[in-house]
Each structure stands twice: as structure tokens, then as C-alpha cells.
Amino acid sequence: xxxxxxxxxxxxxxxxxxxxxxxxxxxxxxxxxxxxxxxxxxxxxxxxxxxxxxxxxxxxxxxxxxxxxxxxxxxxxxxxxxxxxxxxxxxxxxxxxxxxxxxxxxxxxxxxxxxxx
Length: 117
Description:
Elements: H1 5-37, H2 42-47, H3 56-79, H4 84-112
């Protein structure tokens, strides 16, 4: 990519990301104020995620996938130069292995009765 094109792409991406985050925060704040005043029905309460519960199995799943992808990035540092195609393949392999391990962890927890949520 030409060096002159980088600012043309990066600046709008940063700007629209900032606008998106501000919009999400303000929408959520508005919903919470409506709920606190008692003007909301059940539909808006559901949208605002009142009573949110953590989901440990979901956290385990994504944590393991990200660790697998991180390992794929570290392998070229250990073994020297690896081609880009091999790097992408390693990312898919390690992420896939992480999801397989997660499947067996989740299956054993569900069988024990420790269901998510």
C-alpha cells in the first residue's frame, strides 16, 4: 500500500470507531435513565441487560481461542522465519484445537449439571 494512502484510511476508521463507541455509551445511558424513572416496559429492560449474569463457559472458550492464536504468533519467533501461509494455517489449527478442548470441557460441565448461566 502506498504510504500516502495510510492516513486516508486510518483517520476515518479511528473517527467512526470513536463515534460508534460514543453512540453505544449514550444509548445505554439513555436506556438506564428510562428504566430508573419507571417509564420503560419489559422490552426496554430486556434490551438494557438488567440482571446480566456472567457466562464462565463463554469466557473460557474465547480465552482459549485467543491463547491458541497467540501461540501461533509466537512459533515463528521460536523456530525462525516461517512463511505467511504457514502462519495463517497455524492460527486456524491452534484456534481449532482450543475450540475442541473447550467442547470437551463444556460437555463435562454440562453432564455434571454446572450449566452456563
